[in-house]
Every structure is written in structure tokens, then in C-alpha cells.
Design goal:
Elements lengths: L1 H8 L6 H13 L4 H14 L3 H12 L15 E5 L7 H11 L4 E5 L9 H5 L11 H11 L1 E5 L6 H12 L6 H14 L4 E8 L8 H17 L3 E8 L7 E2 L1 H12 L5 H17 L6 H13 L2 H12 L5 H4 L9 E6 L4 E6 L1 H11 L15 E4 L6 E2 L4 E7 L2 H14 E4 L9 E6 L1
Parallel strand pairs: 1-4, 2-3, 4-5
Antiparallel strand pairs: 5-13, 6-9, 7-11, 8-10, 8-12, 9-11
Helix pairs in contact: 1-3, 2-4, 2-8, 4-9, 4-10, 5-11, 5-12, 5-14, 9-10, 12-13, 16-17
Amino acid sequence: MYDIINKKKRGCVLTQEEIRFMTEGYTKGEIPDYQMSALMMAVCFQGMTEEETLALTLAMRDSGEVLDLSEIEGIKVDKHSTGGVGDKTSLVLTPMIAALGIPVAKMSGRGLGHTGGTIDKLECFPGFSTELTKEQFCQNVNRIKMAIMGQTADLAPADKKLYALRDVTATVEQLSLIASSIMSKKLAAGADAIVLDVKTGNGAFMKEEKDAFALAREMVQIGKNAGKRMAAVITDMEQPLGNAVGNSLEVKEAILSLNGLGPKDLMDVVYALGAEMVLAAEKAATEEEARNLLEQTIREKTALDKFAEFVETQGGEKQYVYQPELLPAAGIQMQVINTDTGYVGGILAEEIGLANLILGGGRNTKDSPVDLSVGILLHKKRGQALQPGEALATIYANDMEQAKEAYGKIVGAYRIQPQAPEELLMVKGILRS
């Protein structure tokens, strides 16, 4: 390990064998933290080649279970988001894709910090479980064309251990390490085609557009080199996606969207990602044809019915899909009142996410409990005109002190200006393998 650290420190290229040796050794506890953190710092300064990045990704993928989904019929597609505020895309998109007969075998995580997780949102349905065996997972996808399960402890354990180390040694923000971390889990999940939603803006991990494109290129290349069909859609996270932030509120907005009443910014992202999934599954020849198919699932309510079927299949109460007013509701509602005249120039997405965290709608640590009923409903988004006395948002809380603290965060998140800002493009670009 000393020789490998020294080699990378001098800017030399590590071999596939060296990368596999250090990954396996660290996962088994044979290589100590101090040596691996020295290597990670060397990588931050010297970078990694395309071959090194692929070797690290595959070594982390192979450190645990790699799901074999060969018993699922058809081209299996998966979608991954790099995380954002109000990002309920999977809840809308997955049933739309499944309604077209395309198998979606998806592994999702829980929320951490100011970004929400799909698993938490789905647990708003009483009885819903993401604790599926591999057999149940495959059976569900074959039968109803979709299943969502939590990430197992056996999936890419090297990445979990390595990420925890990088988190405390200031070595997280290195492109190859970020890309290999995300892709090791996606490759271990076993889908044939992977569509990535790479967020950019103040509420995203990649604040700058150029960095988001660079990360997208890196991940698409890794997937291509690993034999997967890949696409990456770079989307905006300068303000929260949609109007709802918070688990139950986001589920309600997803159901509204499946009824054809979704906010335009959310649906722009859903259709862009969905078109790539439909194209990857060879169900359409052009983006326009793919979009028409997706719109049909909303118009004819087949996606809504598929969502209800999915909730029921995984143990949840499906009538909640048709009666979303039954979903968890907070006891306190407080309006955030505007005092200025002008236009919404922007909303700091991260601040809105942190306000939701104050209310108890997110996690500070992976073991923190989450209040599924709390959150924020935004009434004014970028570009909208404002008059004094209008409500910017409504806070849904179960604790008055938390609501008051969140109020200040939300007011501070709004950027109000005299002129209307230029319209934001939700989709910044698309990269395909």
C-alpha cells in the first residue's frame, strides 16, 4: 500500500491490479484508514485517468453483491438523481415508464441533510415496505413492471466505507471519486440502461453548470465502458423542483402530477428523463414519439393506476393514491407573508431544504427520525410578480418554535427584485453513450 500511495503521489497511473488490491484490502480492514486517506488525498491532487476510474468503480461494484436481473424480461431501465430539494421525480416517472410496459428495477435511498429520499416519501403509505428479497423484487418487476427497494448492506460495501472516510478527510469533491461512488452502486443494481439526472445550481451538489456537465460525462463514460446503455440529463436546481418540499406534501404533488396537474418545472424534468428511458428501452425511435407515449400515460390515467398497483404490491394502502387527503398531515399551518413589491428573482433551494430540516422533515444523521407530515408548500416561484401581503409559502409543522425558525429561513431564501428575471431552462443538456 505504501508503494501505491507513493506512485499516485508522483502522478503515475495505477494498474487495475493495484486498484483492486487496495479496494479489497480496505473493505476487509487489512489496510488502515490513515493509508487509504493518504491515497485519497493523492488522488485529489493528481486525478485519475479514465481507465483508473473504471477500475475503481468495478472494484467497488464487485466488493459486494451484484444483482443478477436476468430473470426479468426486457430491457431493464433505472434512473438516478444526484439529489436536490423537492425532487419527487421518481414517484411520477417510474409509474409512467412501467405503464408503457418497460421494466423499472430501482434501488433508492433515504434522505440525508437537506435532500429528500424516495424511500422516506413512499413510507407515507401505511404498510408500504421497501424491504424486498431479490426474488420478490424480480417477481414484482415481471408482474407489474416496477419495483423500488432500499439499498442493501451488501451493495458496494467498499463505497460505503470509502465515502465515510472521504467525508471526514476533505476528499469528497473529486470528480473521479464522485463518479465512481455513484456508478459502483448503479452498476451493482443490475439494470441494462441507466438514465442519470445530474442537478446543477445552488440546491445541488454541483453548483456550477460546467462541473455538472463534467460529472455527467465522467459517469456516462464509466457506464459505457462497463457495457451499459447510458444517458445523462443535466437539470436545474437553482430553486426547489415543483412547489412541495417535505415527504407527504411531495407525495401529494406526485399524485397531482399523475392526474395531469403537475407543476411545469417538475414535468419538464420528468418528460426529459422519461424520453431517455423510453429510447433506451427501444420503445420509441425519436424523443417526440417517446414524449407522446409518456403524455398518453397521464392523459389516460394508466400511470396513476400503475402507481396505485405498485403501492399495493409492496404492502401499502392503495386508496391513498386516489384519496391523497388521507396521507399524513401536520397540525400547524403558517403562511409566510411577502412585504415587498417586485418579482421573485430566485429562491435559494438549499435554504428551503434546511427549513424543511428544521421542521423535522429531513435527517441530520442517517439514524435521525423523520416527520413525514411536515414541509413547505411554495406559492410563488421564480419570475412571478409579488404584492405586499401575498403568501410566499405555507409552512406545515407540528411544533410552533420550529415553524417560527423555518419562517425566517424561507423569507431569507427568496430573492426579490424590481424586474422579472429571464426564464430558467430546466434542461441544460443531454449526454448519451
